[in-house]
Amino acid sequence: MPYAAQLTLQEASGPAMEEVSLLHDHVLFLTCLMCVIVSLSALTIVLNNSTHNDPTEEVEQLEAAWTIAPIMILMLTALPSVRSLYLVEEVFDPYVTIKATGHQWYWNYEYTDSTNLSFDSYMIQTQELQKGSPRLLEVDHRMVMPACLQTRIVITAEDVLHSWAVPSLGAKVDAVPGRLNQLPLLTSRTGVFFGQCSEICGANHSFMPIAVEAVPLKHFEHWLTTFTP
After folding, report:
1. In the chain, what are the domain boundaries?
2. Helix or strand or coil: residue 190?
3. pLDDT-wise least confident of 2-6, 12-16, 131-135
4. Nearest 5°: phi and psi at 125?
5. 96-226: which CATH architecture?
6. CATH class, 15-89 region
7. In 3D, which of 204, 100, 210 has the Cα closest to residue 165?
8. What is the CA radius of gyration of the chain?
9. CA angle, 199 as apex, 194 and 204 as ends, to 5°?
10. pTM (2 decimals)?
11. Fewer Cβ atoms within 10 Å of its own Cβ: the N or the C terminal residue of the chain?
12. In sequence order, which ranges of 90-118 are alpha helices (DSSP H)?
């Protein structure tokens, strides 16, 4: 859950978000390092009163440095990015597949692997919230999935563009009408994880939350057979 005045990423609750957090820290470190190096170099040039006999354009060592350095920086940024992109998007033998369909302004979830379970998920109005439930994030029917087992989410939309996003799980996929996008979802613990539609989709875009509940496998199988929307 995010908190007021938060300056960092949400706490990672799955391998995908852990990869995103590590990549963020890596790129931020390189950015800060380059800012320090460039600032010190500029300050040294300004404060150095000595002049060089040769024009700057003819200093071969300096030319080589400002050509090789950006290449190395790009490589140090690109290689971890490609690795993280592969790990975040690759689907490995999912235990269950859930189809999420965006509507104006609610989500529909379908479990079609073993049952024909389908239900709509609407935001709970503020006056109907139970004590302790987050405002504008809690829904009447959560998307339930097994914890610590990979789940494949297939995302589409019925009317306009939407985006299915749960930050603490590192999940964000566009929901496009007439197109199916997929995303592997894996949690490292049980719990409830909240998100919101992240694509402006109309007047009630801000009232289209997502609630994912990760439960032990035994509880998930029991829920599949007993849940009635």
Report:
1. 15-89, 96-226
2. coil
3. 2-6
4. -65, 150
5. Sandwich (2.60)
6. mainly alpha
7. 210
8. 24
9. 80
10. 0.81
11. C
12. none
What's the token pair of residue 184? 């592997």
First-residue to last-residue Cα distance in the chain = 26
The Cα–Cα gap between 153 and 163 comes to 13
| pLDDT at site 2 | 72
b vs e for 65-96, b when ≥16 Cβ sit within 10 Å of the residue's Cβ? eeeeeeeeeeeeeeebeeebeeebeeeeebeb
Give the separation between CA 116 and CA 178, rounded to whole angstroms.
21
pLDDT confidence bin for 118, thresholds 50/70/90: very high
Structure tokens at 76: 């140090």
**pLDDT tens for each residue of 18-56:** 888 899 999 999 999 989 988 888 888 777 755 555 555
Work out whether the CA dihedral 137, 144, 89, 202 comes out positive or negative: negative
